[in-house]
Design goal:
Number of domains: 2
Shape: rod-shaped
Order of helices and strands: HHHHEEHHHHHHH
Helix content: over 70%
Number of strands: 2
Keywords: Membrane, Transmembrane, Transmembrane helix
Distance between the termini: 74 Å
Length: 283
């Protein structure tokens, strides 16, 4: 209805009608048609690869999350098998894995006062810069570095090192997939091309009323509504894929629900093992 209203408003204007007649008499209509076709083709050529690029980035994120959670569970199993009996070391390693899950895998960071309180920000720059901030943390603040340091002596250290190394590779893939790579000018160009297509469509189609009469304009009103709907869907799909998947209200492609399900069992096991350790101390 909005597209039809705009269409009727443009065509019904006296100045617009005189301009259309002038366009038809001096063959300028073909030039506007060429602009319209060029803008539509350019939009199609740019929106297709943009969608594939963003979808591939989101697909890589899901694969890396599954690898990372699987390796984290393997690390917990190794800690349980090789460190049981060494109480201080066992508790320290389990606490490191729990810190890694809460502060890194869930894509949140600790507050600046060091109280391990989870900080959640609603600003876009916070989530945009988060992958780079996580990868640039000091080794002393990295739980995996603590695990390597504690287990560096003895034969089990090599096994821990292999698991931690693979876990860091999966983490690097996850952070790389989370990092925003597409500049804003890409979407601005797509919006500009869509605007050109929508502005030239009424001018091109209204000139055909001298051939098909007013009845043809009613058909083109429906076409105008379909074009507006198609452009809106494509641009909304691209904007949803561009949103950082870990931010609050991250859109239709948010990974928080999937990640919550994936790490639920891991966190429950870590809490149960640490609680069992605390109970044994009390006994």
């Amino acid at each position: 209805p909005i597209a039809d209203l705009i269409y009727n408003h443009i065509v019904s204007q006296p100045l617009a009608a005189e301009t259309l007649e002038l366009i038809l008499t001096d063959n300028s209509n073909q030039f506007i048609q060429n602009i319209h076709n060029l803008a539509c083709l350019t939009f199609a050529f740019l929106s297709g690869p943009t969608y594939l690029f963003l979808y591939k980035q989101r697909e890589t994120l899901y694969y890396s999350l599954f690898d990372e959670v699987t390796l984290a569970k393997s690390l917990v199993e190794q800690i349980a098998l090789m460190s049981r009996g060494r109480d201080d070391m066992y508790e320290m390693l389990l606490d490191c894995v729990r810190r890694y899950v809460r502060e890194d895998l869930r894509a949140v960071v600790c507050d600046c006062d060091g109280n391990n309180n989870i900080v959640v920000s609603s600003s876009d720059s916070y989530y945009t810069d988060l992958p780079a901030k996580l990868i640039s943390r000091k080794p002393m603040d990295d739980p995996m570095e603590t695990i390597l340091y504690v287990t560096s002596v003895g034969e089990p250290g090599e096994m821990y090192g292999t698991t931690v190394r693979e876990l860091r590779k999966a983490r690097a893939k996850r952070l790389g997939a989370l990092q925003v790579k597409m500049p804003e000018i890409n979407m601005q160009l797509l919006y500009a091309l869509a605007g050109i297509c929508l502005c030239t469509f009424p001018v091109v189609s209204a000139g055909s009323r001298t051939v098909g009469g007013v009845a043809l304009l009613h058909v083109q009103q429906i076409q105008m509504g379909g074009v507006v709907f198609a452009f809106g869907c494509v641009l909304n799909f691209l904007n949803e894929l561009r949103r950082v998947p870990t931010e609050i209200g991250g859109g239709s492609y948010n990974v928080d629900d999937v990640l919550e399900t994936m790490v639920k069992g891991l966190e429950e096991e870590l809490d149960a093992r640490l609680k069992e350790k605390t109970v044994s101390y009390t006994d």
